[in-house]
Each structure stands twice: as C-alpha cells, then as structure tokens.
Design a protein that fits this description.
Blueprint (H helix, E strand, L loop, with lengths): L1 E8 L5 E4 L6 E3 L2 E10 L5 E9 L10 E2 L1 H21 L7 E8 L4 E5 L9 E2 L7 H8 L11 H4 L8 H11 L1 H8 L3 E5 H9 L9 E3 H4 L5 E2 L4 E2 L1 H7 L8 E3 L2 E6 L15 E7 H8 L8 E5 L3 E8 L10 E6 L8 E8 L4 H8 L7 H11 L6 E3 L17 E3 L7 H27 L6 E4 L6 H11 L3 E4 L4 H11 L14 E9 L5 H18 L17
Parallel strand pairs: 2-7, 7-16, 11-14, 17-23, 23-24
Antiparallel strand pairs: 1-25, 2-4, 3-4, 4-5, 6-9, 8-10, 12-13, 15-16, 17-18, 18-20, 19-20, 21-22, 24-25
C-alpha cells in the first residue's frame, strides 16, 4: 500500500450538505441514512450524523423500507448535524445548498393530498416481481429481455423501477384507488424526499434527475424524456411521473418542518440530485472518458464514464446517465456493472450464520486464514446481475472440506466481492477497448484493507482509495454547490486542491490470480438454474 495525491475542487468558503435522503449504504453491519456537511473550498467533511434504517423482509425475496422512517431519519440527521456544527462554532447559515443522493431503483408511491406513503418502498434488490417480468416478456417479440436496451440502456429485470411500479399497480388496492382518483405520485427515493422537504402536500416539488430517471425503464436516455411507448408497455399513467431535471439546478427551497425543532436549513435551496452511483462518480472526479470508479456498499457498482454519447454494451453491462451538471449542460453517460450482493454478504454472515459481530471481525477472520483453502462463495441471493442477468441463480458455498472453518468462509466472502468486480471489469474492458490501468474505489467496505489488497491481487492492477471514502455524499454536495444561482463550488479542472489517497499494488503473480478466478467462474456456473423463473407466491413468495 502506498500514498498518493488526488485533486478536489476549491472555491469560496461555503458549506454544502450532501447525502441527506436515503443514501442508504452498508456501513458497519446496517443500512444507514446520513447527512454530511462539506467545506466547498477543501472538500473537507466538517460534520455528519447517521441513523440506521430498518429493512423489512415480509416474504422470501421481498425487501422493503418504510418511507416515513426514511423521511424522519432525514430530519433527524439534518437536526443532529446542525447541532454538531454549532458545537464546533460553525454558523449553519453558511450552508448554502443541499444535495440529495439515493438508492436509484427503490420505488415509492404516495398520496399527494395527504402526504402519506401508500405502501412501503420496494428496495432495488427485491425479487417479488420475477413473475411480472415473465408476464411482460410474453409481450416482447422473441421474449428478448434486451428489446428496449437501445432506448433505456437496460434489460428487462426485477431490478428496475417500472417493474416494481407495475407490481404495486397490480397488487395494492389503495394505490389502484389513488391512481383512479388522481391522488397518486410515483418516484424513486430522491423524489419522495425532495417533494417532502419542499413542502409535501403544501406545494412540494415533484421531480427527479436524469440519473434516477434513467434507472426506471420508462425514460429514453437518448432524448432525456419519459418515453410514451415505454409507459404504455408497462401500462403506467404518465401523470404519476415526476418532472425530470438536471443533476445540478435549484429544484426548490427547504420548507419549515415541525420535525426540525430548530427550523434548521429553512430557505436553503435543494440544488443537487444524483443517484448514489452517479454521485460517487462525480465525487471521485471521474469527468473524463475512460475514468472509472467502483463503489463497495450493500451491492457493488462499477461505472466508467463514456462521455456525451451512450455506449451500448455487448457484454452484459448497463448504459446509464452518469450526470448532467446543469440545465443547459450536456448529459454524460456511463457503462455500469451492477453486483447485487457485496457488503450485504457481511450482514448475512452476521445475521444468518452468526459467524461475525462486526465488519472489523470479518477482516480479522480473513486475515487469520490468509486463504479460502479452496472454498468459493457465490452470494447470488438475488440472482446474478451483471454480466449474467440470471434470476435463476442462487447463492452457493462450494469446495468445502473437513478442514474448512469460519475463517475460510469469511475470506471466501471477501474474495467473492473481488471476483464479481473482476467479472464486471473484464466486460467493461471488452466494451471500451482500453483496459483500465488502475481502479478508483469508494464506499464503506473500502475500510477493509484485506478486501482492498485482495481486489488489487485479483484484478492485477492497482486499487486507489481516497482518504475520505464518502464520495457519494461528496458528489451530491458538489452538484448542489455548483448549481446556477448557488455557485459556491467550481467543477473546473483548474480549481483543485490536493487530497491524500491510499494505493494498493498487486502482490501475487498473474498466474495465481487467473487460477483462482477460473475456479470462481466454475462455481458461478454451478450456482445457476437453481430457481424456476415461473415461481409464484406459493413456492417462494416472488409475487402475490
């Protein structure tokens, strides 16, 4: 591991708040809501607060969150963060902008007249919609799941919001009635939070940004508009949809809320909105074609900036909008590889097997083992995402012997995260034609030095981690501070200041890396075909 230096933007001495709305990422062993305040001159994290959010698992394959709990945690994080700033003798009136970052595909429907959610938020990795996907595939010539990829950049999958919304419209009577009566609004978590913070039922702004819209399967990534034909295909009334805005502009002002006892941030513009992975790309300053980052959170997401034109993958990757940093600025696109289970495998080791109590303990166990001893772990709990898009896969641990113990399984779990990243990076190198010379990383799991060294070894290239790994919140703050009418943050390459990074160099020979990777690929093949795609609620709870 070596030290290196990277650059971040610098301008006036103002503060920007980032990551205020359900930027729920695995930190320790839970899912957390966080508010963070950054100095717009140095990108220094000045204060933060976090609250754990409960995930609900009402049936096998179902994953939900309470939208009201998400909203309340936002208010608590804002209140506590401002209190901490005051204790540091920092005037909270210096906070000039608020940025929002969120889980992109997580779906919420609420009543615009009462402000109440009409159902729990369906989380991005929820599997209940598999039979909905099967039903929709029957409407497509040749049952081609990539039929709409030219317009959306996405395959038809349980992953994306349109399918979750279709399930809600089919199965929740309260939502059906609200749609009929014109009371229902749909959005990803960013829309729910921005609407609530800007007044809610009393004039709240119903909007989203291009990065979140591009993950719904109802948005045309070429003309940056909701697609009438796609909405007709999913049978979604367009009246439910939020207005699509750029990632960096003033959407509205923070309104007084009874939950904020001090009235903190009232009148401050909400001016940045980015889906979590796009926010991390911005926070890592990946503004040039070919620059890439990998975020290690609940899942694992590798994005490579491809510039102002969308690039369609031939190797199982997604095409997504990376960012649009201003109403009159061009959109930039990215190729993305999405892994459903990364940090979540650590929580599984704790909650389901009782092997560990903390994240640190996983690192300790893996260090004690030093090897998986031939044990391979494929955590396909929600099927396999990129590059396979195979919903029939399920998790397996193979290569076990009488010698295998929990230390080896902990090592294999960390190694699995690295192997999944290798699969995505291989696909990305094939699509882009120019292999990455190093990988920039961020997210809570990057605190695990064993994981970072394993990643460098398995990729056979250096892994570079910023000293402040919370780049998702930083990216949201940068977008907010750079918005027209705010102007406290410059994204110009010339306005930069130095930030320290850690650099992990490969320490094993390429032959050993290739051998281990080949064994992993063999294990992946064995994980497929375990679950029927026609499963129903009577079998394993995949649909109502």
């Amino acid at each position: 591991m070596q030290r290196c230096v990277r650059k971040f933007p610098a301008t006036k001495k103002q503060r920007c708040l980032g990551g205020t709305d359900g930027e729920t990422r695995l930190r320790g062993m839970g899912v957390w809501e966080r508010a963070m305040v950054f100095n717009a001159k140095t990108a220094e994290l000045l204060s933060h607060h976090q609250v754990e959010i409960k995930q609900k698992f009402p049936k096998e394959g179902w994953v939900e969150q309470d939208p009201k709990e998400i909203l309340q945690s936002v208010y608590e994080c804002v209140e506590k963060t401002c209190e901490k700033l005051t204790q540091l003798s920092i005037d909270i009136t210096n906070i000039k902008a608020i940025g929002v970052s969120n889980q992109r595909e997580t779906t919420v429907v609420w009543d615009k007249t009462t402000g109440e959610p009409l159902y729990n938020a369906i989380v991005w990795l929820d599997l209940r919609t598999q039979s909905t996907v099967e039903r929709l595939l029957k409407k497509i010539p040749g049952r081609n799941k990539n039929f709409f990829k030219g317009r959306t950049g996405l395959p038809l999958s349980t992953y994306f919001s349109a399918v979750k919304l279709r399930w809600l419209l089919d199965n929740v009577e309260e939502i059906q009635l609200a749609v009929t009566e014109g009371r229902a609004l749909f959005g990803t978590v960013d829309s729910w939070i921005i609407w609530s913070l800007t007044g809610g039922k009393n004039g709240g702004v119903h909007c989203t940004d291009v990065t979140n819209a591009s993950r719904t399967m109802m948005f045309n990534i070429n003309n940056l508009e909701w697609d009438t034909e796609l909405c007709q295909f999913f049978d979604v009334p367009m009246s439910l949809l939020p207005k699509v805005r750029s990632s960096s502009e003033i959407y509205g002002l923070m309104k007084i809320c009874p939950s904020l006892k001090s009235g903190a941030l009232t009148g401050v513009p909400i001016s940045g909105c980015l889906g979590d992975q796009s926010a991390a790309l911005v926070g890592q300053m990946c503004f040039q074609d070919g620059q890439a980052k990998n975020t290690y959170g609940t899942g694992c997401f590798l994005l490579c900036n491809t510039g102002p034109k969308p690039v369609v993958s031939d190797h199982g990757l997604l095409t997504t909008v990376a960012y649009q940093l201003g109403r009159d600025k061009p959109a930039c696109y990215a190729l993305e590889g999405s892994v459903a289970i990364a940090g979540a495998v650590v929580r599984w080791l704790r909650d389901n097997l009782g092997i560990v109590q903390t994240t640190e303990e996983v690192e300790k166990l893996a260090a004690e083992a030093g090897t998986s001893y031939g044990c391979y772990f494929v955590p396909a709990f929600s099927g396999l995402y990129a590059p396979y898009w195979e919903p029939s896969a399920r998790g397996i641990i193979c290569g076990l012997t009488q010698f295998t113990n929990k230390n080896h399984i902990a090592f294999a779990a960390l190694e699995a995260v690295c192997f999944q990243t290798r699969e995505i990076l291989d696909a990305m190198n094939q699509d882009c034609g120019i292999p990455l010379s190093q990988l920039q990383v961020d997210g809570g799991m990057t605190n695990n030095k064993i994981l970072m060294q394993l990643q460098a070894d398995i990729l056979c290239i250096p892994v570079v981690k910023p000293s402040m790994p919370e780049t998702t919140a930083l990216g949201a703050a940068m977008a907010a501070g750079a918005a027209e009418g705010v102007g406290v943050w410059s994204l110009s390459p010339g306005d930069l200041t130095a930030v320290t990074c850690e650099r992990f160099e490969p320490q094993i020979n390429p032959e050993e890396s290739e051998f281990r990777y080949a064994r992993w690929k063999k294990a992946v093949m064995k994980s497929m075909g375990w679950e029927s795609s026609e499963a129903t609620a009577n079998g394993n709870g995949l649909d109502k």
